[in-house]
Amino acid sequence: MAQLKVTLIHSVAHRLPKQRKIVEAMGLNRINSTVIQPDNAATRGALFQIAHLIKVEEVK
C-alpha cells in the first residue's frame, strides 16, 4: 500500500478552525514538520481541504 509524505509549508494561524483541527489531527505541529500517512480515501479527503497549506509526496 502506498503512503503519502505530508509537509506543512504554511502556518495555520488565521485559518478556519476546521482547517486547524485537520492539521492537528494529521500530526503536523509547526512549519516544515512532516508525517507519513496512508494513502486512502479518508486521508485524501482531509488533505484536499488543507491543500493550500501543505506539500504532498508519494512514498513507496
TrEMBL record:
Domain (Large ribosomal subunit protein uL30-like ferredoxin-like fold) ranges: 4-54
GO cellular component: cytosolic large ribosomal subunit
Gene Ontology MF terms in the entry: structural constituent of ribosome
Lipoprotein listed as a keyword: no
Organism superkingdom: Bacteria
GO biological process, one term: translation
Keyword terms of this UniProt record: Ribonucleoprotein, Ribosomal protein
Pfam hit, one: Ribosomal_L30
Subunit structure: Part of the 50S ribosomal subunit.
Family: Belongs to the universal ribosomal protein uL30 family.
HAMAP family in alphabetical order: Ribosomal_uL30_B (MF_01371_B)
Protein's name in the database: Large ribosomal subunit protein uL30
Species assigned in the record: Levilactobacillus senmaizukei DSM 21775 = NBRC 103853
